[in-house]
Amino acid sequence: MAGLDIEQDAVSEVVDPMGGANQTRVRVYNERLVLSLVRRHGSLSKADIARRTGLSAQTVSVIMRALEKDGLLRRGSPQRGRVGQPSIPMSLNPDGVLSFGLKIGRRSADLILMDFTGHVRVQLHEAYRYPTPAGVLAFVEAGVDKVLAELPLVDRARMAGLGIALPFQLWNWAEEVGAPLADMEAWRHADIAALLADRLPFPVLLQNDATAACAAELAFGQGPRFSDFAYFFIGSFIGGGVVLNHALYSGRTGNAGAFGSMPFPARNGGRNQLIDHASVVVLEKMLLEAGRNPSSIWLTPEKWDDFGDIADLWIERTGHALALAIATVCSVVDFEAVIIDGGFSADIRRAIAAAARRQLAGLDLQGIAPPVVEEGLVGSAARAVGAASLPLFSRYHIDQSVLFKEMA
């Protein structure tokens, strides 16, 4: 759309972000506001938009016509039964914009193609013993070429970019994943976003993997239900995110919600970290010690082998660790809810959340208001979906917290 294409140059010319807004910037903001409201509510009529934003009916009509012409909105069936002209709901056009999302994990990588409504259309998965920059670059280049070759030209022209979600300071976890130190050190000097930007014909953005997963839950999962929540994502290791006042809080260095690094009492005395108690690598070690093959954890994350009592024990231990972590974070921020998600099936996710609730109920929470504990709705694809959201939201939407300050 013309207004949104101009936005990058218009913003770059503004030195003081608190300065005035010219006509172009106002138009861009209003276009983003309309798209963001439609995303939040699913569909809205022009009258609904005008009422919720305080914009004039004429202004809303002009904006929505332009967005429809650009293929970003589509008309629904007229809603009759009210006084006056039939109301026509407008919703996001799934084909309006496409984006790639890349999740770089410690044991696997996922590349997805996502449409404007958050639906994953293509997913490519690759498991490995440990990640290397060269291996990830090869996987992404081959995957993007394959997906683009199968897309019509009109869809290729609607590509917003590639978002990347990966653990920050990946080189610090060589021992935990059993990787050669030299190979993991390569990540210290590899700017994966810049390397991919040089190879791909569209913008590339990067975010911490757990923060990206939290953003996906905020936009497409439980997010609209709660104004403030802590988010735990259990992958190879455990990480998380923080949402305050309906907005993702990334912190001073972009690493807010690094719950995996939380100091934790070790079972044999002393201290270690939450990652040593509530991570999928913990289950992998338990299986290896029992002589079981753990490969399905990484090869088919949505359908593990039947690990029986070992999986049950891991779930209970994970729930206990999460309960202590939940009590800790809620003593700092009075979270309304805690959401638990992970790189596994919905059944496993549900069982872990239930175990965390049981264990939390048994703790001394005097002085703390217990939060609601829910399982996430986005699931194992959360990191990749969050990554794919980066190009969409940076170009077409406004901060989510604005959506909860409507005129209605």
Report on this structure.
- This protein is an alpha/beta fold.
- It has 3 domains: 2-93, Winged helix-like DNA-binding domain superfamily/Winged helix DNA-binding domain (Arc Repressor Mutant, subunit A); 98-211 and 385-393, ATPase, nucleotide binding domain (Nucleotidyltransferase, domain 5, 2-Layer Sandwich), CATH 3.30.420.40; 222-377, ATPase, nucleotide binding domain (Nucleotidyltransferase, domain 5, 2-Layer Sandwich), CATH 3.30.420.
- It has helices spanning 2-12, 23-41, 46-53, 57-69, 133-149, 153-156, 174-177, 181-189, 192-199, 209-220, 280-289, 296-299, 308-330, 346-361, 382-396, and strands at residues 73-75, 90-92, 98-104, 108-115, 120-127, 159-166, 204-208, 229-234, 238-244, 247-249, 263-265, 271-273, 337-342, 372-375.
- The strands form 4 sheets. Strands 5-4-3-6-7 form a 5-stranded mixed β-sheet, sandwiched between helices. Strands 10-9-8-13-14 form a 5-stranded mixed β-sheet, with helices on both faces.
- It starts with a helix and ends in a 12-residue tail after the last helix.
- The model is unreliable at 1-20 (pLDDT under 50).
Number of domains: 3
**In which order are the strands of the major sheet placed?**
5-4-3-6-7
Instruction: Indicate the overall shape.
Output: globular
Given helix and strand content, the structural type is alpha/beta
What is the CATH architecture descriptor of the largest domain? 2-Layer Sandwich
Low-pLDDT stretches: 1-20
CATH homologous superfamily of the largest domain, by name?
ATPase, nucleotide binding domain
> Could you tell me the mean pLDDT?
88
CATH class of the largest domain: Alpha Beta
